[in-house]
Write a structure and sequence with these properties.
Order of helices and strands: EEEEEEEE
Number of helices: 0
CATH topology: Immunoglobulin-like
Helix content: under 10%
Radius of gyration: 14 Å
Shape: globular
Structural class: mainly beta
Largest sheet: 4 strands, antiparallel
CATH architecture: Sandwich
Strand order of the largest sheet: 1-2-3-6
Number of domains: 1
Number of strands: 8
Length: 93
């Protein structure tokens, strides 16, 4: 059930991305409003870029859910910078 009380069917999936430093879960995919990031507290910065490489948005010390409601429809690249004791490590997902 949606926030507005309507029941709709979607092709929502969870994206599980694995790299050398561990996985990141981003869901739902696709979405048009809220994007959830599992283990969000491990990241100091989350950025989204369109396929042309233009930065579409960025969130310092992100929370579990980021709002992408105002973004144009399309594909985006998520860039996550993990928190480290001695600085930050940036990985593209």
């Amino acid at each position: 059930m949606d926030f507005d009380g309507k029941i709709t069917q979607s092709t929502t999936e969870i994206v599980f991305i694995k790299n050398a430093e561990g996985p990141i879960n981003v869901y739902p995919n696709p979405t048009s409003d809220l994007l959830n990031i599992a283990e969000w507290n491990k990241f100091s910065l989350i950025e989204l870029y369109d396929v042309a490489g233009k930065k579409a948005g960025g969130w310092y010390n992100p929370k579990h859910t980021i709002n992408i409601y105002t973004f144009n429809n399309g594909m985006y690249i998520l860039k996550a910078t993990k928190k480290k004791r001695s600085g930050n490590t940036t990985k593209n997902y």
